[in-house]
């Protein structure tokens, strides 16, 4: 693309679709498998038209059998294929946790390095659609906990394409988490193939006074909050973690050295959530630079309620981020400890 | 058809599995082997009989009582013993142990400690075979206990639906830990449970290696040609407890004695003797050769180095992160 050309603006789900299509064209061993991925074109239309181009050998509809779906990915990867497994939502991946945690994540290690598992498991997660407790979860911490898995999240269409392509080329099992509310987000995505590195965070907005760390949909909440803070004279830097495991600590430390303040915005639960890991690493590597304790804006520590008002109150939002940033900057962050 | 030499080799192999397991038990008592140790003694005819007709490019998935299967698939007894000792020369570099034997060169792909965990993986292997248009098959071993796991039903359904080339082998040794099949299964006739997924099912006397071999030879060809999965129940018995820690008090002495009278190696040896394939001196010689082979495996395991400290962080990922 020459300078000055405008990049095509497409949906997040189309960016994922492009990544799948390009990788399937590039490598005969890449195939897509899951419930409703072929004829139905994907529950969120991520796999649209793949069946037409690649046929039912490489785009496979399965019965509703999550454990065997993950097992087919694992077994096929063991003998040289590169499966991209779609879990219709992360909630159903729980039925496949044995294959993911006990098998995919462990086979390389247990076999003394004889086996590789170049598999991607894609799953949408997230809340905000009034779907109730069983369909409104962010389970990244479950996967991040497990050595042997990589965990990748994408907050924009551009990132989605570049990161998914890298995930498919990776020789280790990657859990690729999408957000159901991001599928219809639009953004600029180059038509040509490009990849983004797994293991690098991305500074989505530069700033000097406070670092706001986020990932997935919360990046957009963080960016809106940063804009509002700018109007009050506070310059916030927004970092998108992008890969949760491995996590890019040095980019966070660099930022905190400059801003001296940090908060984390995450859509998962607080206890042992992603932010807990970030706080641990920052206190270890940037303690001397911090002027105030780090605070977290998380999902409420409850199953997700159905009612719209309750659901919205459980989720992190721009106001909560602004308020939290304010109390960190004023040095009033220390609240009494709560035990649950 | 088995040649005379095949018959002798099978006898040698079964004897080797037996002696390997007896020695492993002994090494456990001495503290050279730790962790769980599930011995295969009594079931030798199943591993040998099913593995003999396989081609080198076929795949095998075991469960956690898989020493016999790994050895039947030609993994070196030295490397398996070294694995049990946790040494770097073990089949899995000392990272797997008794329940996680892998020998990728011989297409022996585990070794899982999760009851029923190997079945979905076998489906993946079958899928990959068809994907490449290959004519290999995957043998998938599991116990009677696994039939009650969801993974069994998910896997058999999809294997039948997609014509996956898998031979499912249920080693029905009548117990899952201490629970007899009838206490665990609403339908204790296990082939019937597979039959409802519309595949060929058979039962074989798992104490008779020739019967196992004949059935395996036929079914392996059938699966290879038709690309339809099949299910075999091999009725067998483990002489020892579930693991080395289990005295097995849920079984009567009489029951154990009765099965021991049908010992697969003794029975087979008698047959070879009767038909003149082996003389009693030759049988004796095989026993003493195998004993030496196993002694050498123990010596190798003892002399082998433990894994280097760096190994702890190696092979978590395919690339350094
Ligand atoms: C999912 C799971 N549940 C329980 C166990 C504990 N466990 C280990 S072996 C076993 C019995 C399995 O019996 P069976 O499948 O018949 O195999 P066998 O011991 O007869 O070879 C049990 C309950 C386990 N390892 N995995």
Helices of chain A, by number, come to 13
Distance between the termini of chain B: 52 Å
- With helices defined by DSSP (H or I, 4 residues minimum), what is the helix count of chain B? 12
Largest sheet of chain B: 5 strands, parallel
Largest sheet of chain A: 7 strands, mixed
Rg for CA atoms of chain A: 20 Å
- What amount of the residues of chain A lies in strands? 15-25%
Oligomer: heterodimer
- Low-confidence segments of chain B: none
First-last Cα distance of chain A: 54 Å
Question: Which kinds of small molecule does this entry bind, naming each only once?
Answer: thiamine diphosphate
Largest interface, chains and sizes:
A-B, 45 and 45 residues
Average pLDDT of chain B works out at 96
Characterization of the model:
- The complex is a heterodimer of chains A (340) and B (321).
- The N and C termini of chain A lie far apart (54 Å).
- The mean pLDDT of chain A is 95.
- In chain A, α3 runs parallel beside α5.
- In chain A, α2 links the parallel β2 (30-34) and β3.
- Chain A has helices at residues 12-26, 50-58, 66-78, 90-93, 97-104, 107-110, 140-144, 157-169, 218-231, 249-259, 274-286, 308-314, 318-330, and strands spanning 9-11, 30-34, 59-61, 82-86, 120-125, 150-153, 174-179, 186-188, 202-205, 210-214, 236-240, 243-245, 262-265, 295-297.
- Chain A is an alpha/beta fold and 340 residues long.
- Chain B is 45% helix and 10% strand.
- Chain B has helices spanning 4-29, 44-51, 67-72, 77-84, 118-131, 150-161, 181-184, 190-195, 209-226, 253-260, 264-274, 280-303; strands at residues 59-61, 138-143, 166-172, 175-176, 179-180, 200-205, 230-235.
- By secondary structure, chain B is α/β, with parallel strands linked by helices.
- Chain B is globular and about 50 Å long.
- Chains A and B meet through α3, α5 and α6 of A and α5 and α6 of B.
- Bound molecules: thiamine diphosphate (TPP).
- Thiamine diphosphate is lined by residues 65, 113-115, 143-146, 173, 175-177, 242 of chain B.
- Thiamine diphosphate (TPP) binds next to β4 of chain B.
């Amino acid at each position: 693309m020459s300078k000055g050309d405008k990049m095509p603006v497409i949906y997040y789900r189309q960016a994922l679709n492009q990544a799948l299509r390009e990788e399937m064209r590039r490598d005969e061993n890449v195939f897509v498998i899951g419930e409703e991925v072929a004829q139905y074109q994907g529950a969120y239309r991520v796999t649209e038209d793949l069946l037409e181009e690649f046929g039912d050998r490489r785009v496979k509809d399965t019965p509703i059998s999550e454990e065997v779906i993950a097992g087919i990915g694992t077994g096929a990867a063991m003998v040289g294929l590169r499966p991209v497994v779609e879990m219709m939502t992360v909630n159903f991946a729980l039925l496949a946790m044995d294959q993911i945690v006990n098998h995919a994540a462990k086979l390389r290690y247990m076999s003394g390095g004889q086996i590789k598992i170049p598999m991607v498991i894609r799953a949408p997660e997230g809340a905000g659609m009034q779907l109730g407790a069983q369909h409104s979860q962010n389970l990244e911490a479950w996967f991040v906990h497990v050595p042997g898995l990589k965990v990748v999240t994408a907050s924009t269409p551009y990132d989605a394409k570049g990161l998914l392509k890298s995930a498919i080329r990776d020789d280790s099992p990657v859990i690729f988490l999408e957000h159901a509310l991001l599928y219809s987000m639009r953004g600029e995505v180059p038509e040509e193939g490009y990849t983004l590195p797994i293991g690098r965070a991305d500074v989505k907005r530069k700033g000097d006074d406070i670092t706001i760390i986020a990932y997935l949909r919360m990046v957009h909440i963080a960016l809106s909050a940063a804009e509002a803070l700018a109007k009050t004279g506070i310059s916030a830097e927004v970092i998108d973690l992008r890969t949760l495991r491995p996590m890019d600590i040095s980019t966070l430390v660099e930022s905190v050295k400059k801003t001296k303040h940090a908060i984390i915005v995450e859509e998962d639960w607080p206890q042992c959530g992603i932010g807990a890991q970030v706080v641990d690493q920052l206190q270890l590597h940037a303690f001397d630079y911090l002027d105030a304790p780090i605070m977290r804006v998380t999902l409420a520590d409850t199953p997700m309620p159905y009612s719209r008002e309750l659901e919205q109150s459980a989720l992190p939002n721009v106001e909560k981020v602004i308020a939290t940033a304010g109390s960190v900057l004023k040095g009033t962050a220390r609240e009494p400890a709560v035990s649950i | 058809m088995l040649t005379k030499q095949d018959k002798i080799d099978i006898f040698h192999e079964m004897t080797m599995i037996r002696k390997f397991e007896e020695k492993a038990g002994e090494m456990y008592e001495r503290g050279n082997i730790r962790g769980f140790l599930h011995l295969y003694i009594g079931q030798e005819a199943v591993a040998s009989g099913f593995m003999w007709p396989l081609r080198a490019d076929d795949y095998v998935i075991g469960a956690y009582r898989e020493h016999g299967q790994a050895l039947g698939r030609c993994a070196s007894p030295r490397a398996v013993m070294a694995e049990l000792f946790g040494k770097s020369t073990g089949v899995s570099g000392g990272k797997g142990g008794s329940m996680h034997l892998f020998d990728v060169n011989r297409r022996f792909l585990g070794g899982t400690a999760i009851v029923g965990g190997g079945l979905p993986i076998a489906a993946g292997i079958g899928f990959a075979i068809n994907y490449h248009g290959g004519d290999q098959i995957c043998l998938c071993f599991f116990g009677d206990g696994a039939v009650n796991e969801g993974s069994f039903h998910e896997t058999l359904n999809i294997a039948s639906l997609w014509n996956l080339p898998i031979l499912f082998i249920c080693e029905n040794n009548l117990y899952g830990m201490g629970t007899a099949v009838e206490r665990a299964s609403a339908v204790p006739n296990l082939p019937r449970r597979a039959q409802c997924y519309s595949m060929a099912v058979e039962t074989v006397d798992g104490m008779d290696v020739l019967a196992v071999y004949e059935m395996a030879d036929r079914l392996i060809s059938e699966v290879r040609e038709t690309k339809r999965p099949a299910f075999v129940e091999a009725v067998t018995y483990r002489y020892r407890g579930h693991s080395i820690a289990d005295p097995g008090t849920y079984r009567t002495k009489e029951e154990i004695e009765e099965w021991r009278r049908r010992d697969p190696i003794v029975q087979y040896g008698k047959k070879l003797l009767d038909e003149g394939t082996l003389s009693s001196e030759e049988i004796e010689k095989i026993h003493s050769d195998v004993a030496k082979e196993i002694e050498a495996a123990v010596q190798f395991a003892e002399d082998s180095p433990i894994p280097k400290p760096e190994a702890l962080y190696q092979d978590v990922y395919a690339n350094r992160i």
